[in-house]
Predict the structure of TonB-dependent receptor.
Amino acid sequence: MELFAFFETNSFRNKQLFLALLLFGIFNSSIIAQSTIHGEVQDTNGNLLEGVNVVLNPTYSGTTTNAEGQFKFQNIPTGNYSLTLSYIGYKTIHDSIYVSEKEILQNFVLEEDLLNLQNVVITGTFEPKVQLESSTSMSVLNAEMIQQVYPQGTANLLQSIPGTFVDASAGEVFTKVYTRGVSASAEDDMGWYYVSLQEDGLPVSLAQYSYFSPDLFHRFDLTTEKVEAMRGGSASVTALNAPGGIYNFISKDIQNKFSGDIKISSGFQGENNYLRKIDAFVGSPLGNNWFLNAGGHYRIDDGARNTNFTFSKGGQFKFDLIKQNKNGTLKFYGKLLDDFTNRYTGVAAVNWNDPTPAFGQDFSSTSLLMPRFNANIPDGRNLAQGATNSFNPSQGVHAKDLAFGFDISQDLGHNWKLKNNLKFSTKSANWQTSISNAFVSLNDPLAYFISGADFPIGQVVFKDAQSGAEVARIDNSGILAGQPVQYLTDGNLPNDAIMGTSAWYIENNADEWMDQLTLSKKIDHHNITGGVALGFSDNSFFNQGSFGYVTYEPNPRMLQVTLENPNEPIIKLSDDNGISNYGGLFFVNSKANVSQIATFLNDNWDISEGFNLDLGLRYESINHKGSKDRFNSNMQDGGLDGNNNTAYDNGILNPTGEKDHFNFSYNYLSFSAGINYKMNTKSSVFFRFSQGNKAPELNYYFNNFSNVPINKKGEVQKINQAEMGVKYTHSNFSFTSTLFWSELTNIGTANFEFDSDNNSIFYTPILFNTSRTMGLEWESVYEPIQNITLRFNGVIQNPKATKWKIYDAAGSVDTADDQTLDFSGNTLAFTPKLMTNLSSEYQKNKISAFIKWQFMGKRFGNVANGFELDSYSLFNMGTGYQISAHLSAHILVSNLFNSKGLANFYGANSFGASANGATKEYINANPDESFVVFPVLQRSALLELNYRF
């Protein structure tokens, strides 16, 4: 009573005092109630684990374990929480904690997840999914596996993924990657036709066409945390126009403390060709829940085969700026790639049954690329302005990619989630290299008439373009009557031939932006996701080819060529660099706008505790709108320079002013349904059926319809796929196994041909075909004893060309002698029946080591099944030593025993020939003919020093 009387008499001042005491009590009690959660994380062998991601929910705060394997959360109010611990290569742990004490100690032991089956994957699904519980066939390469691969390009890395066919024999670019026999349109210049190469969930490039494929704009380095690879399956409903599969390179995530890596690499390959490379990555918190990741690489590479120039040089820089809040994250990201690289052409061989190198070439070291020189070739688009294009084969392809984007992931409350990923990029690829390296005999009139000269018959002189010294002088007066040429001096050309090759100049440019927006709602046992994916690409493509006079020998030389008949003016068949028939072999100048709009709906339904049904629909609309210039050669007497004595500029192709326009849309509905039954915490089975579609790419317009109206749109290829698999994980043994069936229809095929009568290059009419492949994929890991891991994966398959016809143009544009060849029922080309990978890894204390065996089974080199590429094996090995807590060293050796395996086949060794021409009848009739093959890249060794801080 006295207390109340006190407040009544001192009303205002005492009320203030009472309120202050009350607030102090509340504040003090909240401090008392706040706690610290800390603990230690180790593996089953008792080793402390550094860098484990530890997330506390619902505070959405995260940290990583330090060098002692410890983590800590401070000032945690009383309540119920969940801890999630994740670490690549280990099983994820989810643990519930009730906070009431001032200090809570919670230690954890992480079990190794040998196949990442207990880890969450994000590729090919609209919501993150534990791999064991997903109804897709997925493989994961973690950072450790990535660093075990000699850095020879994106495709080379993917060879260790089961069921994935990879041809990386040409180098870092010009590669082929496909799965399950879905391969028919995956040509060498567009080898990623059916699959999506992605960075953090969005395609590297939206559009594809000849010499503009996504591998041009992708390099991996220390910024990559892991690769998720999905074969077929839900790619039909989760990827833009890529039903064959997804290869998603995922960048490193938030680093909760300042840390990073610097790696310096130096090695050699082939005949002492050197590689020097530096990689770097750094990640750090910036305060106020902001985080920064940045890194990249730079390299100088002489290449695996012999050239007189640096084969590759350049690099990239990438960054992520991430804001984390209690409901999700916002990420800004960017990439700058500025890179020069090249690609190898084939090597000549003889003996169809057991190929051996021909003409003094070597399967290990010969490249047959033009040597370095500087030329200026008239630009057919702007002859009146005197425009030229610089040409230097040492440049190869100069690829540039500047990309920026942002990725939002937010929990909106009430079981609603929003995710939006948007990216803008501007790309360019400038090719200055050679195409083809065929044998052209000096007795073949093509060797002279391809110069563009009217009648190059008589005495022809060949000089070394660099020194000016005469190499050979011949008389070809009798060749039109079938008589051989005569050498007039002691000098001669190697192999009595020149190389049938072109100075290949291309300008590719694209401005692209793409966006994927998803909105999901959890309703009872359903997680329903809807959204839209947008992609827009503005493309320009210019392609011009000139002939190059080059010696046909392992280290080619450029040749100056003149016609020097007695008592007549000297006619220059080539310029001083050896370039002839300026811009006269082919001309393409096109522009195209691509728009891809897709809407999708997916239901992930937990039918019961063990059953999950995944249903997806995707409606896609793709529009191609553009134009293609008509062209001819309207040079006046004397050619561009008006000089009758310079024949090399007489046939320049240039626009007529007419354009052929195209504006076609492709609309289709794709479907995918999968069911997963989780039998227990260690095993599950799944089944999936998908109906997908593949719309034509821009090469359909660019490569066809030469000087004719583009009055017909391409066919949409149909892809039906079924798969049934089992997944199992245990402490020392894990495996997945998948039976699959895939059918591809409406496959448009055409051949690249050369007409020797008018020296023109053309594509044959398109015919439509069907293929089918059935097979079994598997992936397994076994730890028989501590510190030793065995991995074995592969595929057994039966690929068939169920309906397959080829248009035979008989080597000329004239259609009078054309025919259609039927190869239905043959084995599908370039699809092996068996591929396997077997490896053994050792890790103890400071020492690590591995050895890998890759086996590639026999493959037919064409659908005619006329020529078969033999099986081959590759052995790779490596070892490492942890010098100190921060410094380590590794040695990597690729193709340890220098296998001479053949990865690809290009047909007969003649200018304009194709693989399809090497039928059984042709081979029987030409048993001594030489042909072109692509050997695998030879042995390479690398020393790496890695400093981690």
